[in-house]
Amino acid sequence: MKQDTAIFELHRSRLRSIAYRMLGEMPAAEDVVQEAWLRWQRAAEPVEDPRVWLSAVTVRLSLDALRAARRRREDYVGPWLPEPLAPSDTEAFATDASAHAELASDLSLALLYMLERLSPEERAALILHDAFDFDYDEIATSLGKSDVACRKLVSRARERVRLERPRYTVSDDVHHKLLEDFMQASATGDATRLATLLAPDVVVYSDGGGQVVAATQPIHGARAVTRFIVGIARRYSDDAIDLVPCPVNGQPGILIRQGTQILTALTIDTDGKVITAIYGVRNPHKLTRLMHSLGSAGGQETVKETGE
Protein backbone atom coordinates (compact mmCIF):
# COMPACT_ATOMS: atom_id res chain seq x y z
CA MET A 1 0.00 0.00 0.00
CA LYS A 2 1.40 3.38 -1.00
CA GLN A 3 1.34 5.78 1.94
CA ASP A 4 0.16 9.39 1.69
CA THR A 5 2.98 11.61 0.44
CA ALA A 6 1.50 14.69 2.13
CA ILE A 7 1.68 13.03 5.54
CA PHE A 8 5.37 12.26 5.09
CA GLU A 9 6.07 15.84 4.04
CA LEU A 10 4.48 17.09 7.25
CA HIS A 11 7.14 15.14 9.17
CA ARG A 12 10.13 15.55 6.84
CA SER A 13 11.77 18.52 8.60
CA ARG A 14 11.52 16.86 12.01
CA LEU A 15 13.00 13.65 10.62
CA ARG A 16 15.95 15.63 9.20
CA SER A 17 16.34 17.28 12.58
CA ILE A 18 16.46 13.91 14.36
CA ALA A 19 18.91 12.49 11.83
CA TYR A 20 21.21 15.53 11.98
CA ARG A 21 21.29 15.45 15.78
CA MET A 22 22.18 11.78 15.57
CA LEU A 23 24.83 12.08 12.86
CA GLY A 24 26.14 15.67 12.87
CA GLU A 25 26.25 15.65 9.05
CA MET A 26 23.55 17.01 6.75
CA PRO A 27 24.29 14.81 3.69
CA ALA A 28 24.10 11.70 5.87
CA ALA A 29 20.95 12.99 7.55
CA GLU A 30 19.30 13.59 4.19
CA ASP A 31 20.26 10.08 3.04
CA VAL A 32 18.55 8.68 6.14
CA VAL A 33 15.39 10.69 5.48
CA GLN A 34 15.34 9.55 1.86
CA GLU A 35 15.56 5.92 2.95
CA ALA A 36 12.79 6.55 5.51
CA TRP A 37 10.67 7.91 2.64
CA LEU A 38 11.26 4.76 0.61
CA ARG A 39 10.27 2.56 3.54
CA TRP A 40 7.19 4.69 4.11
CA GLN A 41 6.19 4.09 0.50
CA ARG A 42 6.77 0.35 0.85
CA ALA A 43 4.81 -0.10 4.09
CA ALA A 44 2.40 -2.99 3.59
CA GLU A 45 -0.33 -1.74 5.94
CA PRO A 46 -1.76 1.69 6.84
CA VAL A 47 0.33 3.36 9.56
CA GLU A 48 -1.73 4.19 12.65
CA ASP A 49 0.66 6.81 14.10
CA PRO A 50 2.93 8.27 11.36
CA ARG A 51 4.87 10.40 13.87
CA VAL A 52 6.03 7.42 15.91
CA TRP A 53 6.44 5.10 12.92
CA LEU A 54 8.54 7.53 10.89
CA SER A 55 10.60 8.59 13.90
CA ALA A 56 11.31 4.96 14.77
CA VAL A 57 12.44 4.21 11.21
CA THR A 58 14.61 7.34 11.15
CA VAL A 59 16.23 6.51 14.48
CA ARG A 60 17.02 2.93 13.45
CA LEU A 61 18.49 4.07 10.15
CA SER A 62 20.46 6.76 11.97
CA LEU A 63 21.81 4.22 14.45
CA ASP A 64 23.11 2.07 11.59
CA ALA A 65 24.61 5.11 9.87
CA LEU A 66 26.18 6.35 13.12
CA ARG A 67 27.86 3.02 13.84
CA ALA A 68 29.32 2.99 10.33
CA ALA A 69 30.36 6.64 10.64
CA ARG A 70 32.14 6.02 13.94
CA ARG A 71 34.27 3.34 12.34
CA ARG A 72 35.27 5.85 9.65
CA ARG A 73 35.87 8.59 12.20
CA GLU A 74 38.43 6.44 13.96
CA ASP A 75 40.73 7.22 11.02
CA TYR A 76 39.75 10.89 10.82
CA VAL A 77 42.71 13.27 10.96
CA GLY A 78 42.38 15.44 14.07
CA PRO A 79 39.27 16.20 16.14
CA TRP A 80 35.96 15.49 14.43
CA LEU A 81 33.40 18.30 14.70
CA PRO A 82 29.86 18.37 13.30
CA GLU A 83 29.07 20.02 10.00
CA PRO A 84 27.87 23.60 10.69
CA LEU A 85 24.24 24.20 9.82
CA ALA A 86 23.03 27.00 7.62
CA PRO A 87 21.00 29.51 9.69
CA SER A 88 17.80 28.52 7.87
CA ASP A 89 18.28 24.89 8.89
CA THR A 90 18.99 25.87 12.49
CA GLU A 91 15.77 27.86 12.70
CA ALA A 92 13.71 25.02 11.22
CA PHE A 93 15.29 22.37 13.42
CA ALA A 94 14.76 24.37 16.62
CA THR A 95 11.12 24.92 15.65
CA ASP A 96 10.55 21.22 15.01
CA ALA A 97 11.85 20.20 18.43
CA SER A 98 9.97 20.45 21.69
CA ALA A 99 9.79 24.11 22.71
CA HIS A 100 10.24 23.50 26.45
CA ALA A 101 13.07 20.95 26.46
CA GLU A 102 16.58 22.20 27.21
CA LEU A 103 18.10 20.09 24.46
CA ALA A 104 15.54 21.24 21.91
CA SER A 105 17.02 24.61 21.09
CA ASP A 106 20.64 23.55 21.59
CA LEU A 107 22.11 22.59 18.23
CA SER A 108 25.54 23.95 19.16
CA LEU A 109 28.72 22.37 17.90
CA ALA A 110 29.70 21.97 21.56
CA LEU A 111 26.68 19.85 22.45
CA LEU A 112 26.83 17.76 19.28
CA TYR A 113 30.53 17.16 19.90
CA MET A 114 29.67 16.02 23.43
CA LEU A 115 26.94 13.70 22.13
CA GLU A 116 29.64 11.89 20.13
CA ARG A 117 30.89 10.52 23.46
CA LEU A 118 27.60 8.77 24.20
CA SER A 119 26.77 5.32 22.91
CA PRO A 120 24.51 5.41 19.83
CA GLU A 121 21.54 4.15 21.89
CA GLU A 122 22.14 6.72 24.65
CA ARG A 123 22.32 9.46 22.06
CA ALA A 124 19.10 8.37 20.38
CA ALA A 125 17.18 8.02 23.65
CA LEU A 126 18.32 11.42 24.94
CA ILE A 127 17.53 13.19 21.66
CA LEU A 128 14.06 11.68 21.40
CA HIS A 129 13.19 12.38 25.04
CA ASP A 130 14.79 15.76 25.69
CA ALA A 131 14.63 17.34 22.23
CA PHE A 132 11.41 15.86 20.84
CA ASP A 133 9.43 15.13 24.03
CA PHE A 134 8.89 11.44 23.24
CA ASP A 135 7.40 9.27 25.97
CA TYR A 136 9.44 6.32 27.16
CA ASP A 137 7.07 3.86 25.49
CA GLU A 138 7.57 5.70 22.19
CA ILE A 139 11.35 5.62 22.66
CA ALA A 140 11.09 1.91 23.44
CA THR A 141 9.25 1.39 20.16
CA SER A 142 11.92 3.32 18.28
CA LEU A 143 14.86 1.49 19.86
CA GLY A 144 13.31 -1.94 20.28
CA LYS A 145 14.00 -1.88 24.04
CA SER A 146 11.92 -1.91 27.21
CA ASP A 147 10.62 1.25 28.89
CA VAL A 148 12.91 0.56 31.86
CA ALA A 149 15.97 0.22 29.65
CA CYS A 150 15.12 3.48 27.86
CA ARG A 151 14.73 5.32 31.18
CA LYS A 152 18.21 4.15 32.15
CA LEU A 153 19.62 5.23 28.78
CA VAL A 154 18.18 8.73 29.12
CA SER A 155 19.25 9.10 32.74
CA ARG A 156 22.80 7.94 32.03
CA ALA A 157 23.13 10.12 28.94
CA ARG A 158 21.75 13.20 30.68
CA GLU A 159 24.16 12.77 33.58
CA ARG A 160 27.16 12.46 31.26
CA VAL A 161 26.16 15.58 29.38
CA ARG A 162 25.67 17.47 32.64
CA LEU A 163 29.05 16.43 34.01
CA GLU A 164 31.06 17.00 30.83
CA ARG A 165 29.32 20.17 29.64
CA PRO A 166 27.99 22.30 32.49
CA ARG A 167 25.26 24.73 31.49
CA TYR A 168 25.70 28.47 31.96
CA THR A 169 23.07 31.14 31.51
CA VAL A 170 24.73 33.67 29.24
CA SER A 171 22.93 36.43 27.35
CA ASP A 172 23.47 36.77 23.61
CA ASP A 173 24.94 40.24 24.18
CA VAL A 174 27.61 38.88 26.54
CA HIS A 175 28.32 35.97 24.21
CA HIS A 176 28.64 38.30 21.21
CA LYS A 177 30.91 40.69 23.11
CA LEU A 178 33.29 37.94 24.25
CA LEU A 179 33.42 36.50 20.74
CA GLU A 180 34.08 39.90 19.18
CA ASP A 181 36.81 40.70 21.73
CA PHE A 182 38.39 37.32 21.09
CA MET A 183 38.41 37.76 17.31
CA GLN A 184 39.83 41.30 17.56
CA ALA A 185 42.64 40.09 19.83
CA SER A 186 43.24 37.07 17.59
CA ALA A 187 43.40 39.17 14.42
CA THR A 188 46.10 41.38 15.91
CA GLY A 189 47.96 38.62 17.74
CA ASP A 190 47.45 40.43 21.07
CA ALA A 191 48.66 37.79 23.54
CA THR A 192 48.06 39.99 26.58
CA ARG A 193 44.43 40.62 25.65
CA LEU A 194 43.86 36.97 24.78
CA ALA A 195 45.11 35.91 28.20
CA THR A 196 42.34 37.95 29.86
CA LEU A 197 39.65 36.35 27.70
CA LEU A 198 40.55 32.68 28.12
CA ALA A 199 39.76 30.35 31.02
CA PRO A 200 42.86 28.67 32.50
CA ASP A 201 41.60 25.29 31.25
CA VAL A 202 40.28 26.49 27.88
CA VAL A 203 40.31 23.94 25.04
CA VAL A 204 40.55 24.48 21.27
CA TYR A 205 39.07 21.93 18.86
CA SER A 206 40.16 22.51 15.26
CA ASP A 207 38.67 20.28 12.56
CA GLY A 208 40.62 20.25 9.31
CA GLY A 209 40.05 16.60 8.48
CA GLY A 210 43.49 16.35 6.88
CA GLN A 211 42.26 18.65 4.09
CA VAL A 212 43.70 21.92 5.43
CA VAL A 213 46.14 22.95 8.15
CA ALA A 214 44.64 22.45 11.61
CA ALA A 215 45.67 21.19 15.04
CA THR A 216 45.55 17.40 15.01
CA GLN A 217 44.87 17.22 18.76
CA PRO A 218 42.76 19.39 21.07
CA ILE A 219 44.86 22.20 22.56
CA HIS A 220 44.51 22.57 26.33
CA GLY A 221 45.27 25.49 28.60
CA ALA A 222 45.33 29.27 28.18
CA ARG A 223 49.07 29.49 27.57
CA ALA A 224 49.12 26.86 24.82
CA VAL A 225 45.96 28.24 23.23
CA THR A 226 47.37 31.77 23.20
CA ARG A 227 50.57 30.58 21.51
CA PHE A 228 48.50 28.69 18.95
CA ILE A 229 46.31 31.68 18.11
CA VAL A 230 49.20 34.15 17.95
CA GLY A 231 51.00 31.76 15.60
CA ILE A 232 47.97 31.68 13.31
CA ALA A 233 47.76 35.49 13.35
CA ARG A 234 51.39 35.73 12.24
CA ARG A 235 50.89 33.15 9.51
CA TYR A 236 48.02 35.12 7.96
CA SER A 237 49.36 38.61 8.70
CA ASP A 238 50.01 39.32 5.01
CA ASP A 239 46.66 37.98 3.81
CA ALA A 240 43.34 39.79 3.51
CA ILE A 241 41.12 37.97 6.00
CA ASP A 242 37.56 39.03 6.79
CA LEU A 243 35.87 38.16 10.07
CA VAL A 244 32.15 37.95 9.39
CA PRO A 245 29.57 37.67 12.19
CA CYS A 246 27.19 34.78 11.49
CA PRO A 247 25.15 32.45 13.71
CA VAL A 248 26.64 28.96 13.76
CA ASN A 249 24.19 26.27 14.85
CA GLY A 250 22.11 28.79 16.72
CA GLN A 251 24.99 30.39 18.61
CA PRO A 252 26.90 33.61 17.97
CA GLY A 253 29.68 32.71 15.56
CA ILE A 254 32.31 34.06 13.22
CA LEU A 255 33.08 33.06 9.64
CA ILE A 256 36.74 33.55 8.78
CA ARG A 257 36.73 34.38 5.10
CA GLN A 258 39.33 34.99 2.41
CA GLY A 259 37.75 36.51 -0.64
CA THR A 260 34.64 34.45 -1.35
CA GLN A 261 35.99 31.37 0.42
CA ILE A 262 34.96 30.51 3.99
CA LEU A 263 38.07 29.19 5.73
CA THR A 264 36.63 28.53 9.19
CA ALA A 265 33.29 28.54 11.01
CA LEU A 266 34.04 29.34 14.64
CA THR A 267 32.04 29.33 17.88
CA ILE A 268 32.91 29.50 21.55
CA ASP A 269 31.62 28.20 24.86
CA THR A 270 31.64 30.65 27.74
CA ASP A 271 30.65 30.88 31.39
CA GLY A 272 29.81 34.55 30.83
CA LYS A 273 33.17 35.80 32.03
CA VAL A 274 35.79 33.97 29.99
CA ILE A 275 35.94 31.59 27.04
CA THR A 276 35.98 27.94 28.11
CA ALA A 277 36.16 26.25 24.70
CA ILE A 278 36.70 27.18 21.06
CA TYR A 279 35.36 25.15 18.12
CA GLY A 280 36.70 25.80 14.63
CA VAL A 281 35.45 23.83 11.62
CA ARG A 282 38.01 24.15 8.80
CA ASN A 283 37.36 21.03 6.74
CA PRO A 284 36.19 22.56 3.42
CA HIS A 285 33.81 19.66 2.77
CA LYS A 286 31.88 20.62 5.91
CA LEU A 287 31.69 24.29 4.92
CA THR A 288 30.30 23.84 1.42
CA ARG A 289 26.63 23.82 2.42
CA LEU A 290 27.04 26.82 4.69
CA MET A 291 28.88 28.78 2.00
CA HIS A 292 26.26 28.03 -0.64
CA SER A 293 23.43 28.89 1.72
CA LEU A 294 24.91 32.25 2.62
CA GLY A 295 26.07 33.07 -0.90
CA SER A 296 29.68 33.15 0.35
CA ALA A 297 28.52 35.28 3.31
CA GLY A 298 27.40 38.04 0.98
CA GLY A 299 25.64 40.89 2.69
CA GLN A 300 27.07 40.11 6.13
CA GLU A 301 28.82 42.88 8.01
CA THR A 302 32.60 42.58 8.14
CA VAL A 303 33.86 43.33 11.64
CA LYS A 304 37.59 43.18 11.02
CA GLU A 305 39.99 42.93 8.14
CA THR A 306 43.69 42.23 8.34
CA GLY A 307 46.34 42.55 5.68
CA GLU A 308 45.26 45.75 4.06
Largest sheet: 7 strands, mixed
Count of separate structural domains: 2
Helix % is 40-55%
Q: Proportion of β residues?
A: 5-15%
Shape: elongated
* Widest sheet, order of strands: 2-1-6-5-4-3-7
Along the chain, the helix and strand elements come as HHHHHHHHHHEEHEEEEHE
Question: How large, in whole angstroms, is the Cα Rg?
Answer: 20 Å
Low-confidence stretches: 296-308
Tally of DSSP β-strands: 7
Which whole number gives the mean pLDDT?
A: 89
H/I helix tally:
12
Distance between the terminal alpha carbons, to the nearest Å?
Answer: 64 Å
Fold and architecture overview:
The chain has helices at 5-23, 26-42, 50-73, 87-96, 109-115, 120-131, 136-143, 147-164, 172-188, 191-197, 222-235, 284-294; strands at 198-207, 219-220, 241-245, 253-258, 261-270, 275-281, 304-306. The radius of gyration is 20 Å and the shape is elongated. By secondary structure, the chain is an alpha+beta fold. 42% of the residues are buried. The longest helix has 24 residues, at 50-73. A hairpin with a 7-residue loop joins strand 3 and strand 4 (253-258). The protein has two domains: 5-164, no CATH class; 172-306, Nuclear Transport Factor 2, Chain: A (Roll). A seven-stranded mixed β-sheet has the order 2-1-6-5-4-3-7, with helices on both faces. The protein is built from twelve helices and seven strands.
Question: Could you write a compact summary of the structure shown?
Answer:
This protein is α+β, with helices and mostly antiparallel strands. The chain is 53% helix and 14% strand.
